[in-house]
TrEMBL record:
Domain NLE: 8-70
Keyword Repeat: yes
Protein name (record): Ribosome biogenesis protein YTM1
Origin organism lineage: Eukaryota, Fungi, Fungi incertae sedis, Mucoromycota, Glomeromycotina
One Pfam short name: WD40
Subunit structure: Component of the NOP7 complex, composed of ERB1, NOP7 and YTM1. Within the NOP7 complex ERB1 appears to interact directly with NOP7 and YTM1. The NOP7 complex also associates with the 66S pre-ribosome.
A molecular function (GO) term: ribonucleoprotein complex binding
GO biological process, one term: maturation of LSU-rRNA from tricistronic rRNA transcript (SSU-rRNA, 5.8S rRNA, LSU-rRNA)
One cellular component term from this protein's GO annotations in UniProt: preribosome, large subunit precursor
Amino acid sequence: MTQVLPQIQVRFTTNQRQYIVTDSAILVPTNLRRYGLSEIINHLLGTEKPIPFDFMINGEFLRSSLDEYLKIAGLSTETTLTLEYVESILPPRELSAFQHDDWISSVKIEQSMIVTGSYDNKIRIWNTSGECKQTFSGHDAPVKSIDLYCVQGERTICVSASQDRTVRAWSILEEDYNDRCGLMYECRGHKGSVECVRFDAHGNQVASASADSTINLWNTLPPDEDELVTPETSHISREKPEIYVKKPEATLLGHTGPVQAIVYDDEYGSNRLYSGGWDHSVRMWDVESRVNVDTKNSDKVILCIAYSDVNLTKITLSSHQNWVSSLTWSPVSAYILASASYDGTLKIWDIRSKTPLYTLSQRDNSKKLFCVDWNNGIIVSGGEDCQLRVYSGDKIHGESVSSE
């Protein structure tokens, strides 16, 4: 006798208009997984070539059969489930790799330009074809962090933070790499290595986080003549030209150990800042009043922070086998992010699932990854293997996830 499989009523819904099907409830076997549910959607659409889909229930991806989900959720087959579906896509492809002379500590993308900071004390500007268009020298120790701000129609400003305890600002003219590119000014005030540097959303302020347990705030106005320092009135080597030197506008105090990461809340411009560090705390600052207005404590060191304006309850994503060194959100989705780790892997996540969508491994996973960035359809990463790796990221957006 043929066994009758349990069935349940489901309603299919999607935000992808080209894939909308009937919203009437349909009876389906409870042993179906993603593949079987995809077959139903393809049948309803009448597609000639099968399209793979992923399915969500109450905002979380279905990673089991419907029957297993019902048992875990404590639901019966009398329930009518609403299944939201989105098109699945292929994982990112490695497009190229650019060789550096030393470890890559930081990387940022702006338009068709990739900028890297390295342990050889230098900042490099690359195009997406792998040509190093310009190199900035000036730091006396490894560069630990960089950030970019594009002045629309004019130039891009790069700020770099270094173990030499300084922050430097550089001017980049993307289509005209010449003598007008170069150092704008230097920021002095930290007593330890500067681990992270960030622009606010409008490019009016720069924040720097240091191993000296402080966060310094700097304005980005053109330097005054009285900020010009000559070799005769400073400790600068006589071989170096005179430079403009800025002092911090303010110093934020509160961390009890090295501050490793900072990020501005773009919604508040330059008035809200988040920081994390070796004291296991994430702190929120009111920049205008210079006050630490909230502190969240962790049982782990905070090495990196990335901000998203999606309202979420607390979640923990676990898959890396070593410290997570860098995070970046997708530029087009509030649900997708990338993480780089000392385990040598780059992972792509959708926060609606607790397992990574993709894991991108280096040829030698014993080499740590230090940085990742994502912009203009490109994901880039770098670390101990001295390779700037470039991946396609244009197909990964808020309505797309990988297969199981």
